[in-house]
Amino acid sequence: MQRVLRVVLLACATVVSTAVAADVLGDAEAGKVVFDQCKGCHQVGDGAKNRIGPHLNELFGRPAAGIEGFKYSKSFRRAGASGLEWHADTLDAFLENPRSYASGTRMSFRGIKDAKDRQDVIAYLRLFSDDPANIPEADPTATATDHDLDPAILAIQGDPEYGEYLSSECTTCHQKDGGDDGIPSIVLWPEEDFVIAMHAYKNKQRQHPVMQMMAGRLNDEEIAALAAYFNRLEN
Amino acid sequence: MKMDRRAFLGKTALVTASLAAPAVLADGHGKPRVVVIGGGAGGATAARYIAKDSKGAIDVTLVEPTRRYYTCFFSNLYLGGFKDMEDLGHSYGGLAAGGVNVVHDWAIGVDRDARTVALAGGGSLPYDKLILSPGIDFVDGAVPGWDISAQNAMPHAYKAGSQTELLKAQLMAMPEGGTFAMVAPPNPYRCPPGPYERVSMVAHFLKANNPTAKIIVADPKPKFSKMALFQEGWANHYEGMIDWIGEDFGGGNVSVDPAAMTLTIDGEETKVDVCNVIPAMKAGRIAELAGVTDGNWAPVNAADMSSKADPDIHVLGDASQQGDMPKSGFSANSQAKVCANAVRGALTGSKVFPAKFSNTCWSLIDTNDGVKVGATYEATPEKIAKVDGFISQTGESADVRKATYEESEGWYTGITSDMFG
After folding, report:
1. 3-state secondary structure chain B
2. Nearest by CB to A214, which of B49, B372, B376?
3. Which residue range or ranges hold the FAD/NAD(P)-binding domain (chain B) (predicted)?
4. What confidence tens digit (pLDDT) does each residue in B195-209 have?
5. In chain A, what residues touch B389 (CB-CB under 8 Å)?
6. ipTM surpassing 0.95, yes or no?
C-alpha cells in the first residue's frame, strides 16, 4: 500500500500541479493544526532551527539522521546509514508508531493513530521541502521557546559537575542512555529547552505531578546545572 | 612446550608480585575500603555509585548471598500475570564490570572495633566505611501460629523469589470458589501499598480464572496507603470479591494454624485455601548483629544516612529509621546516592553536595489502571522530613491511569539500570 502511494507521488511530481499532490497527500491546512502537537520539539519554516528534535525543512528526500550537527539516536544513525530516506510512505509509517519503526528513537511521542491526520501533517510538511512545490515565504510556524522566562535565568551557565550529582535523582526514572519506554528521554536536549521545560513544571504550566514536584524544589542554578549535564551526555 | 609454559607462568607470578608490592607499601592499607552488605535497591546503588564516581580511588566490596536478584517491586505484577519471574531477575555482572568486588556470601557479624565483617564462608572483610542495606526480616511471634518454618504452608512472599513463585503456585491451585486470605502487616513495613496492590493482582488473576473465589484481608491498621484509590478500584473491577477487615472489625486480632489451614479473626475461625501471612517487620538481622538497631530499626542521621550508633556505618533503605520516607526501593535508591556522595567525600575529600531525597510508589490495580503517590524530602537535624507530595486522584480518566502504568514500567527499567548498571 505504502509503496503504491510512493509511486503515485512520483508520478504527480513529474506531471502536474501541487494541488493534485496535495490531494494525494492530504490537506496541508488541516495538517498545520495537527502539527501543533509536534511544535514542542520541532520547528519548520523560515528560520527553523534544531531544537529538541531536528528542524523539518527540506525533509522530503532527506536521509534519516541527515542533518549534520544534530545529535540523533543510535537507532536513527543506523537507519540513515542503511538507506532510510524520508518520503510520504516512510513518514507515514514512522508517524503511525515511532517506537515500533525505530525502537531506539529519542522522540517521545506516541504517534498519530488517525491515517487522515498523518496524511494532512505530511502534506503540511511537504510545503517546506523543495521540488515540486515552491518554498513558501512563511514565518516560522512554531518555536519551542514560547515562554516568558526571565532572560537572566536562561543566561545562567550551568555547572555540569553539580548537574551530574543532581542527575542521580532523575536517573531513577529517566534512563541515562536515552532509552525511553513510558518515561521520556531527557538526554542531549538543547540546554535552553531543558531549562524552559523545567521552569514550566516548576511554575505548574506543564502538567505532571512527579515533575512539578521534582522541579519545584530545584533552584535556577540547579536547573541550569542539570541542563548542562544532560546536554553533554554521550551514549 | 611444557618448559616454556612453566617459565612463562613463573615470570608472570613474579611480575604480579612486584607490581602489587608498592601499592601495599604506599599507605597503611592502600586504598580506602568500603564494604556494602545487601545488593538490593540501597546496597547495589551505593556500591555502584561509589565505584563509578571514585574512579578506582576506593575499593568497593558488595556482600550479597544470591547470585541473581529478584526485585520485590513489580513482583505483585508477576502474581497478576503481567510479568514473568525472569523479568524481575537481575545479575551482578554489571556491578562487577563497574569495578565492584561482588562477594556472594552471607555477612554474619560486624566487629566495629576492628572494623571487619565476618562472612559465613569463613572470610573476613576489613572496612573504613560500612554500608548496611540488608532489607527486612520478620518479628518473631508477630502472627500467633506462624513462624518461618511455616512459610511453605503460609508464604509471606515479601522477599521476592521462591516465596513469590510458591504463592503464585498456590493461587493457581485454588479450588473453584475457594478463599485467598492475607494477613497484612502493621506499620512500619516495606512498601506501604504493596499488600493492597497484591490483593488487586490476586483479584485480577481470580476474576479471569476462578471468578467465584473470595479474598479476605485481615489488617491490623485502620487505614492504609492509597486506600481511597484501591477501594475505588476494587469496587470498579472486582465488586464483591474482596473483604477487607480493618482494625475496627478485629483485623488485628488474628492467629493462624498452618497445619489445618485456618485463619482466626477476632475469635472467628475460617478455613482458607491460600494464606499469605505478611508479619510485622524489622531491620535485616545483620543490622542487629552490628549493634546499630534501637528496637526493630536502625536510627540514622538524615544528612548522610550514617548510623546514630557508629559514624563509620551507614544504614540504607528498609532497615533504616530515618523519618518520613516510606520503606521502598525508590527510597533506598534515593538514600543510597546521598550516602554514596557523603562516603566518597569522607574517604577521598571529594565535594559533598547537600542531601535531597525523593520517592514515588506506583501500584497497579487492574490492566492499565495504575496509580501513584510520591513526595520529596530534605534532611533536618532530627530526621528526613517531607517537603512536598502528590497522589493520584479518584475518578481519573482511563488515559491518565494507562499513562501512569506505562510510566511505572519506564521507572522499572530506569531504576534497575541505575542499580545494576
Report:
1. CHHHHHHHHHHHHHHHHHHHHHHHHHCCCCCCEEEEECCCCCHHHHHHHHHHHHCCCCEEEEECCCCEEECCCCHHHHHHCCCCHHHHEEECHHHHHCCCEEECCCEEEEECCCCEEEECCCCEEECCEEEECCCEEECCCCCCCCCHHHCCCCCCCCCCCHHHHHHHHHHHCCCCCCEEEEECCCCCCECCCHHHHHHHHHHHHHHHHCCCCEEEEECCCCCCCCHHHHHHHHHHHCCCCEEEECHHHCCCCEEEECCCCEEEECCEEEECCEEEECCCEEECHHHHHCCCCECCEEEECCCCCEECCCCCEEECHHHEECECCCECHHHHHHHHHHHHHHHHHHHHCCCCCCCEEEEEEEEEEECCEEEEEEEEEEECCCCEEEEEEEECCCCCCHHHHHHHHHHHHHHHHHHHHHHHC
2. B376
3. 33-146
4. 999 999 999 999 999
5. 213
6. no
